[in-house]
Amino acid sequence: MQVLKGIVNARDLGGLPVQGNLRVKEGLLLRTAHLADATEADIRYLAGLPVVKVIDFRKDEEKKGKENRTIPGAEYISLPVDATGNAAALATDEEKKKFTRHKKFDVRKIIVMAAFNEKAKNVAAAMYPTLVFDHECQARFAAFFREILATEKGAILYHCTQGKDRTGIASALILAALGASRETIVADFDATNRVYEADVRKYSRRVRFWGGREEEVNVVKSFMGANTENFVKTLEQVDRLYGSMEAYLKGPIGLTDADIQTLRKRYLIQ
């Protein structure tokens, strides 16, 4: 995929290998961060693919001042996924004000604040199991697959705020459905850490400056980077509970054998 100037953590699943000496077709399944800062050149490129559907996993508060730019010809689908497992509903009024009063959503400032918040520490540790095992999250990802299956032609772009956790889990589920190995799935997930490495270092130093210890720094690492170790543990938990990723996809995500064959026929090539 062409390098996008204003869209962070953008990559094409195209080219990734799957079993049977096949690979994912290029230019059809795109994972990114939000599109609010897309340049004119970015928009022209995405429209030319063409991107026909943009699926946004962000909640409403994350879109404040960061509304997506429009790609001509693309349908926009909002599928908000709460990676906190609704923990935000348990926040105090004062905590809610801290996190929502800003006119513009600034994920970096929020992560630094979250590093010193006990609820946020628990959310960071439980994020990936929540995304995979929480019933509401499962329902959103099931709807995500229905949108993909309904799109017979053109490219699909899917994203959250940073394009790493919710988008990373979505990518893992797609790759699993297409028959990718565990190694390929983990490598794609971990690639995010190369994108955010400098930010993790910078804001970890900031948290330490404010008196944070390793526990607080780990919140920054989880929220600003991708916690690959926890991701792998979550996949292993799927294996223990369901037997395999494919069984999980056929269980709570609701895919049928015919759905999986449709996806593989549409998105794989030799």
Keywords for this entry:
single chain, 12 helices, five-stranded mixed β-sheet, 8 strands, Protein-Tyrosine Phosphatase, Chain A, three-stranded antiparallel β-sheet, alpha/beta, 270 residues
Characterise this structure:
This protein is α/β, with parallel strands linked by helices and 270 residues long. It has one domain (11-269): Protein-Tyrosine Phosphatase, Chain A (Alpha-Beta Complex), CATH 3.90.190. Helix content is 51%, strand content 10%. The chain is built from 12 helices and 8 strands. A 5-stranded mixed β-sheet has the order 1-4-7-5-6. A 3-stranded antiparallel β-sheet has the order 2-3-8. β2 (17-18) and β3 (22-24) form a beta hairpin. The longest helix has 18 residues, at 192-209. The chain is globular and about 55 Å long. Residues 86-92 have low confidence and may be disordered.
